[in-house]
Amino acid sequence: MLDETVRRKGISFLKEMITAVHEMGGGMIGGTVHSYWSGVLPTELDVKEPLWRQRLKSMRELTPLAEELGVTRNVEVINRKSPGTGRMPWKEIKQVLDDIGFDGSLIMEPFVMRGGQVGRDIVVWREMIPNPDLDALAAASAEFVKWNLR
């Protein structure tokens, strides 16, 4: 997972994506634009620090091109253990966004079930909510956003 050749290929790919976003007139690129996502710690590591250092190295390397082309990199918080049902410090998150004058989009990714292509791709390994009523969860999420993040 710390193979420099693999990291270089990732950097090359993201530079192409940043350039493409710029050429299409877009201003943002988002998602896991700072690291790979396997869902589990590689077997050869027993701590996350080496991966953290790689992420920082990659982000620092991508920053000059993104700044030059006016493309903002939105960094996704990857935490499959804390669904956004009140466990995150949303009041504080909202305050920081207000403090910096953020007026962009916020994206909700309510991954609550394992299985299917998306579940496999993002390594949802357990049911986050047993027997979810997806319509009720979507309505509750919309209400949460309406009252907590407006």
Shape estimate: globular
Q: Would you list the SSEs in sequence order as H and E?
A: HEHEHHH
Strand order of the largest sheet: 1-2
N-end to C-end Cα span: 40 Å
Strand-residue proportion: 5-15%
- Would you tell me the overall average pLDDT? 81
- Taking pLDDT < 50 over at least 5 consecutive residues as the criterion, the unreliable ranges are none
Radius of gyration: 18 Å
**Number of helical elements:** 5
Content-based structural category = mainly alpha
Biggest sheet record:
2 strands, parallel
Per DSSP E runs of 2 or more residues, the count of β-strands stands at 2
Percentage of residues in helical conformation: 40-55%
User: How many domains?
Assistant: 2
Question: Could you characterize the architecture of this molecule?
Answer:
This protein is mostly helical and 150 residues long. It has 2 domains: 1-78, no CATH class; 79-150, no CATH class. Helix content is 48%, strand content 5%. It has 5 helices and 2 strands. The chain has helices at 4-23, 49-69, 90-99, 116-121, 134-148; strands spanning 28-31, 72-75. It has a two-stranded parallel sheet with strand order 1-2. Helix 1 runs parallel beside helix 2. The termini are far apart. 4% of the residues are buried.
